[in-house]
């Protein structure tokens, strides 16, 4: 899942990035509304976590701009320090998909982001399967032949994306775009190295196929 955190409080933004990275999400940060609009113009995010009181361009205007985009896929989770019913109604009336007052529990934030992410994508089963391989996205659990596998957040994110592709070939560039964030170097062998580690952990018989000149598929 690719997420943009638009939050002008740097400490909170950094904290959110750490939490979401642990959940296997690719996360970019915008510290003001103008930067948020610039990033959403370049990247197709699954979810934007949007602080309502952003400088430069107010969060309300950022939300309006996102909602106005044709064929919008990105979901908006609005954050605000004000938690009154009137504020929540107003925020949702702007077109936000969900609304969370500060302070909030990180576990709830993660759950809401995942719920919105599912709405941003075509409907998928609650558990992704391929033969004896099972991945439960909500519980972050992967098993093969009934045995639980210890995967890193990035390995699990790559596996989830490939399983969700339903047999479609996924290029290394697409994996880099959807699973990593803007800090990733497009000229590194990061994707190849992660796939190789994942193959080793999945064990035989091989599950991930390399399609020459094209990418990977399950």
From TrEMBL:
Residues 2-117 form the Response regulatory domain. SMART domains: REC, Trans_reg_C. Residues 125-218 form the OmpR/PhoB-type domain. The modification 4-aspartylphosphate is found at residue 51. SUPFAM superfamilies: CheY-like. InterPro entries: CheY-like_superfamily (IPR011006), OmpR/PhoB-type_DNA-bd (IPR001867), Sig_transdc_resp-reg_receiver (IPR001789), WalR-like (IPR039420), WH-like_DNA-bd_sf (IPR036388). It comes from the Bacteria. Pfam families: Response_reg, Trans_reg_C. PROSITE patterns: OMPR_PHOB, RESPONSE_REGULATORY. Residues 125-218 bind DNA. Keywords: DNA-binding, Phosphoprotein. CDD domains: trans_reg_C. The keyword Phosphoprotein applies. This is Response regulator transcription factor.
């Amino acid at each position: 899942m690719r997420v943009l955190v638009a939050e002008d409080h740097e400490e909170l933004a950094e904290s959110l990035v750490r939490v979401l990275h642990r959940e296997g999400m690719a996360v970019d940060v915008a510290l003001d509304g103008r930067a948020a609009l610039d990033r959403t113009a370049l990247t197709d995010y699954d979810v934007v976590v949007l602080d309502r009181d952003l400088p430069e361009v107010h969060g309300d205007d950022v939300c309006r701009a996102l909602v106005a985009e044709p064929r919008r896929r990105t979901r908006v989770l609005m954050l605000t320090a004000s938690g009154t019913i009137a504020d929540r109604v107003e925020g949702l009336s702007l077109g936000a998909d969900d609304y969370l007052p500060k302070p909030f529990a990180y576990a709830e934030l993660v759950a809401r982001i995942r719920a919105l992410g599912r709405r941003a994508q075509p409907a998928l089963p609650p558990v992704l399967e391929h033969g004896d391989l099972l991945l439960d996205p909500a519980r972050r659990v992967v098993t093969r032949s009934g045995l639980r596998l210890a995967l890193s957040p990035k390995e699990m994110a790559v596996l989830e994306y490939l399983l969700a592709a339903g047999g479609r070939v996924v290029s290394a560039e697409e994996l880099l775009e959807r699973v990593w964030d803007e800090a990733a170097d497009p000229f590194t062998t990061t994707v190849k190295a992660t796939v190789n580690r994942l193959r080793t952990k999945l064990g035989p018989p091989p599950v991930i196929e390399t399609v020459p000149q094209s990418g990977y598929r399950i």
